[in-house]
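Meet the record:
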Amino acid sequence: MKYAIDGATWPDRAFWRSFRLRLWIGLAVTFGVLGLWLAMMPEATRDAILAYWSRVELKTPAPTLRPLWSTPLSVQLHVAAAVAGIVTGALIFLLPKGTGGHRLLGWSWVGAMTVVAVTSVVMIFDLSTGINALHIFTAMTVLSLWGGLAGIRRGNVKQHAASMAGLYVGGLLIAGLFAFMPGRTMWQVLFGG
């Protein structure tokens, strides 16, 4: 939806150009960090990871929630909040901005994203996996939420929209794709364990 800021229709072409640029930069940084992480790990570990990926076969989807129910509560809350964030964020994109409904959905989305960030930290301890490259998205979530909320409190709608839209794409959609990597819980949920 478009709406007016200072008499001009927004989001305009400049916003979408800037958004696409931030999206490509975000993708480049994400894959750069993952590449750096892969390059810095011990050679035997890297070889084992690459050998694993060379054996992965894409199966026919057979969705089941059984693998999710056997995970710690933090993982279940993380997935539930991420799904809520994806649905709520899509509604926010589709519905008029600046209304009471937008604010209500927005605060719901902020709450869901806060739960996503907090549970991603709790999962480090629950799963005993330590910090990994995907936790860069946790930091991005916290910073983007702060930037979006600070922007709207100052009346800077463009900063607010850019931060929140960037978080939706980077913190939910791109990070969500990594959740479906072979061997991870969401891979097992989608392909039946």
